[in-house]
Amino acid sequence: MIRPLELYIGLSYTRAKRRTEFISFISLASMLGTALGVTALITVLSVMNGFGEELRSRILSVAAHVTVTGLGNELTDWQSVQQQVAGNEEVLGSAPYVLAQGLLTQKGKSSGVMVRGILPAEESSVSSLGENMKGGKIERLAAGEYRIVLGQELAWSLGVWVGDKVTLMAPQASVTAAGILPRMKRFTVAGVFEAGMYEYDSGLVMIHIADAQKLYRLGDNVTGLRLKLDEIDAAPLFSLELGNQLGALYRIRNWTQENVSFFRALKIERNVMFVILMLIVAVAAFNLVSTLVMVVTDKQADIAILRTLGMSPANIMSVFIYQGIIIGLIGTLLGLLGGITLAMNVSAIVSAIEGFFQVQFMPPDLYYISGFPSRLDWNDVAIIGVLSFVMSVLATLYPAWRASRTQPAEALRYE
To answer: How far apart are CA 270 and CA 380, in angstroms?
Structure first.
């Protein structure tokens, strides 16, 4: 098989010989260091992607993809707006809602809550919260029955469950013969949900939209419309288009705006983790520099002989570039293989380790997400592979340049 001379010599220099066993060991260490760094980087980013996806799905099980409100956070003609919105093919479902603050009390215990008035028949078209019920059903909410659905954490803190009574107080006041009193109403707990997010489980309650309109004196008005889209990542662009369609009297917000701090923190954490773990690959690349420098020093006589036989400095430089590329390529490929395999099986591997050592890394009583979700992003894999290979190639340039500067006469003087 015909191979370029420089590649053949570079391959021969990577093989272990009795006189260069230590150098070959350093080459192997560089290769394994690159593989370890790439594997760790792919695995950690996949787990972080999995956690981000899990948290996003839990948030969007309660929050809307897009919300439409009017001036003063009231929507007077919500039926006509709902008909206009339904004409967009991106919209899978829409439902009116009332959102207000309240104080929930029971037997001397109280907690501030966000009250959401809903139409139970339409809520399932914009939310999957009905699938996360721990007791009761959202469908039990009925106009005039004054029933309430609350989060599991809130139910535990108040000491109530399905069938118990709670009192909901609204900020609006009523003028009576006894003076000005806060508006309050007795509700029956019709259901308890667990969204998997403490903010919702401890501070959100739902009642029928008609009961909310009566309690907060809204008449036939609502706070707005909640929309569900077929593609959640298209929510920002759709919000702009819908704003142009409805006009300036309506306020359009999407889930990325309402949770911007949370998702920005996740993105920053992911980017910082990427940089930190990429340093492992950089250390392996520096190790490759030292390896090739040692090879160049050891092969001074061979380089001088090759020069006397007619090889140019560029050819000598190519020999050591090929050697570094081979080490970096093998390390990168091993890392990609290991990272992809580990990322696809991280949940099973963690479960096996937990079972073997009888430990639990994320106890369910402390963490809502007790497992290790993983989502492999092939774009991340490609970027990591390219960066690792490029760093390996860059690491070869100085040693290869130094080899090309070798003077045959001086190198052979003491041989």
So the answer is: 12
